[in-house]
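subagent[fold] <- orchestrator: predict structure for attached chain, return tokens only, no commentary.
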Amino acid sequence: MHGSHAALSVIIGIMILVGVVTAMPYTIAQQSDVAIQVQHQYGSCWFFPDNDHTDPIQLYDIPALADGNDTYCALTREQTANMMSDHYNLVYTYPSVAGTKIIKDVSWENKSLVSVFKSAGSVDESIRIPRQVHDDLIGFINRSGIDGIEEYYVEIQQPYLKIGSIQQINESYFNIGGTTNLDDGSTVTIVIDKDRHYAQHDINNYTFTTHVLKTNQTIGIWSVDMKLPVWEMTAGGGQDTIWHDAEAACGYSVATVRFPLYQTWEPLPTPTQYVAYLGNGNIAPVTVIQTIIQVKTVYEDRWHTATQTPDITDALGDKVGYPYEPENALPWQPLVALLALAILAYTIVRRR
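subagent[fold] -> orchestrator:
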């Protein structure tokens, strides 16, 4: 027994040196999957509402998740949906590690704080509020000196997803982006004119995805470049403005914004300048000019443009007229005169 106590004293000394207590604000959106990174491995996560009310869900002693060298306190969207307090204290307790041996002291069993050492016993928490359970846990760990503690301050918010801007980059690409309190790495899906293209069975051409980047643990940002065939999208402007819908969705959070595309055509002759730009509330439109060469269609009379027929010649190389007129043929005019004289003479003879 004496040797066992000596070994335990060494472990306690190690934990006193490496124990860390921190306070870091972190935003949790209800109905979202959450992963809060912690500093030590093999520990457990305890979420205590920062008020004097009871806590029916009791998110206590949840094993941390490991991802490579990183460790997280993770909650599912079903768990965060029931977190009703405005603020929570996250207590992360991590065990002593001696070589390959991991010693965890305090656990939550049957609404009691229970120590792995029988001498420390357990504390019945069945009639105590979360704030008291929190204080008992900290006191229990400090007395035993086995487990270490990290503390984080958590703010609970209604989930939100906002579209902050839509801007045109060039004639084909548009950028859409915004902010959210949803967790880092959450997938954001953007669809343009969802109902219209769902009916036309080409919705994949108007669907884009990106991920939330939440580096400061409070506000996440998201952004994606969208390649859109603006020359095929219905033009708007004036009293006949036809608006386009952009819908962004992440988990249960949805944000929409409407924007018109304005298109104009310069008169002929070619080339024609195609102008497409968008307007969105107070977002200044970006005008992009794309030159499209118009193809002219020329109609020609095929008879007049056909290859000329060469002259027709006879065996002697003389040109043959059309209709056929041989060059050595007698002229018809003297024959007609002689015929007329013959008829006249015949008429005179008969009268005599």
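orchestrator: received. Logging for downstream: Residues 2-157 form one domain. Helices lie at 2-18, 77-81, 130-144, 194-199, 332-351.
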